[in-house]
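Troubleshooting log. The previous run stalled partway through. Resubmitting the same two chains, unchanged.
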Amino acid sequence: MLYGGNNNWFASYAYWYFKLYGHQDVKLLDGGRKKWELDSRDLVEEVPSRPAANYVAQEQDTAIRAFRDEVVDAINVKNLVDVRSPDEFSGKLLAPAHLPQEQSQRPGHVPSARNIPWSKAANDDGTFRSDAELTELYQEEGVDLAKDTIAYCRIGERSAHTWFVLHELLGQENVKNYDGSWTEYGSLVGVPIALGA
Amino acid sequence: MCGATTGGLSREGIDVSKETVIEGTISKDGVPVTGYVRLLNADGEFTAEVPTSATGAFRFFAAPGSWTLRALVPGGSADRAVVATQGQVHEVAIAV
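Second attempt completed without errors. Output:
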């Protein structure tokens, strides 16, 4: 059972990562730590002690992970969902203002990508919107749910949140998270880049 | 935090003249309360979110423009509009 701060960005990424390496028995706590706090549930400060154990991961399941060449090939063919903020998508910013650590060489987005910020999939308390609201959101933003989809952001965390929505909540098949994301794509030589909203 | 004195966050090390600062505290029934504050842009779209300090204080380094602050605390929420300009600290007290 995973949960985290920042509206479960990191917990969603960890969830995707567990699944990527074949660990199927994993769940996400809807709303994460924020919802837990807003519900006035108990928090403790003790750190539990666990004995060390050996764990052997499976080979990665590339059915849920996209690499850069696949993203280039997906232009105008598959759904490309860019879940960053509008200012990152348009090229005004290289990174969220409060998270400047990882940046690409160039601003912009992958041609034909739709900008559907991760935050549109979540309620104020961090829980996911209803299945009906989520389906309407992606359809209204021009995502053809009959096609394969690749989600990306800057380093693959926010897009893991959207991957969770599309693949785990809405049961869409063939949804991949491009964890190289804009930090990789925007640093490549010779790939097409689009600017503007 | 029960019994905490009210007051803003330290501005030590911040060159306010270069920044557009929106900060303040959340209170409920006159007492500082912890929670979260969301920063929404002029279209009402999510831009950023921070948890408050133990004394209910929050701070955003924003861009100049019109913003909405949305405070979330156990059992309630409240919105406040703010128009921010560079070089100023905009103090917003939010009572939920």
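Takeaways: Strands of chain A lie at 79-82, 114-115, 149-152, 175-178. The mean pLDDT of chain A is 95.
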